[in-house]
Design brief:
- This protein is 72% helix and 3% strand.
- It is mostly helical and 298 residues long.
- It has a single domain, classed as ABC transporter involved in vitamin B12 uptake, BtuC.
- Strands 1-2 form a two-stranded antiparallel sheet.
Length: 298
């Protein structure tokens, strides 16, 4: 292949931006998984199902408002809130009784939840593909270095830093964040000083699931909304959490950047083998950093 004729600087920049917009979704979903994993020590396999549920809820809310601009914004807001409410009911009704069990038991339990959510989505929305059109303001593209770039992708690029800063503020500057970090290190000591650790866990679990729902809502206008969309994202999210450092939210950001950018560049360089690039990057990272790029909380 003659790379000089197939790859241009402008094309490289455009594909880099596409990779960053995909990184936004990967980071939002992976950070929620990493947060739950770091504090609750739960490998939540059902996290991808909550992402899928967020996408379907976003579609339903937007459709309810006739796919109007205000309906889109309501959908982006209400879909993750709906996922958070469902996750709170699940945590208070089921999870809170299982925290002392072995990790394998929790893993099997979340796998069962994944199957339940999958059937629930099929029962409510059916097995047909759904699609959501973004509002007029995000339709079309803008020229960047003389090449068109989707407006909605630019919107996603703006969301990523907001979520990252919000997570930093939550974990480092708020009382619940400081308590959650302490509980991740020594939950027994946190309970000994009179703090209700159970509700701390519930809060962290709901925040993590809210991020999964937010990722699903944001991705809804960019792809078909279908039942199988949870399978790919949960596999990618776990890989991102592993290479970033188990339970490390900033590791999730770094891992998402590696995964999203290598996937995007792979599509440009060798489209027929593009799926290999991000997984090869994961293998290379783990060869040199078996415990992840940043310090794991496990």
């Amino acid at each position: 292949m003659d790379f000089s004729t197939t790859i241009t600087f402008n094309g490289l920049i455009q594909q880099f931006l596409v990779g960053l917009s995909r990184t936004t979704i990967l980071f939002i979903v992976s950070s929620g998984l990493s947060l739950v994993l770091g504090v609750l020590r739960i490998p939540n396999v059902a996290h991808g199902s909550l992402y899928m549920l967020g996408a379907f809820l976003c579609y339903s809310v937007a459709t309810l408002f006739g796919n109007s601009p205000i309906g889109f914004w309501f959908a982006i807001l209400l879909a993750p809130i709906g996922v958070a409410i469902i996750s709170l009911a699940t945590e208070r009704g089921l999870f809170c009784h299982l925290y002392d069990r072995e990790h394998l038991m929790l893993l099997l339990f979340t796998f069962a939840l994944m199957l339940i959510f999958h059937d629930a989505v099929k029962l409510i929305w059916g097995s047909e593909y759904r699609s959501l059109t973004p509002p007029v303001i995000f339709q079309g593209s803008l020229p960047i270095l003389g090449m068109p770039f989707p407006k909605y992708n630019l919107f996603l690029l703006s969301i990523g830093p907001i979520v990252a800063v919000g997570l930093w503020f939550l974990t480092q500057r708020t009382k619940i964040g400081k308590i959650a970090r302490a509980a991740a290190v020594d939950r027994d000591m946190v309970g000994a000083v009179g703090i209700n650790v159970s509700w701390v866990f519930a809060s962290v679990f709901v925040i993590g699931c809210f991020l999964a729902g937010l990722g699903g809502a944001l991705v809804a206008p960019t792809q078909n909304i279908t039942q199988g969309m949870d399978h790919t994202i949960i596999m990618e999210a776990f890989l991102i959490v592993i290479i970033g450092g188990l339970g490390n939210v900033w590791g999730a950001l770094l891992g998402a950047l590696i995964f999203g950018l290598t996937d995007s560049m792979g599509i440009m360089i060798l489209p027929q083998f593009s799926i290999v690039f991000p997984y090869a990057a994961v293998v290379i990272v783990l060869m040199f950093r078996p415990k992840g790029l940043l310090r794991a909380t496990w």
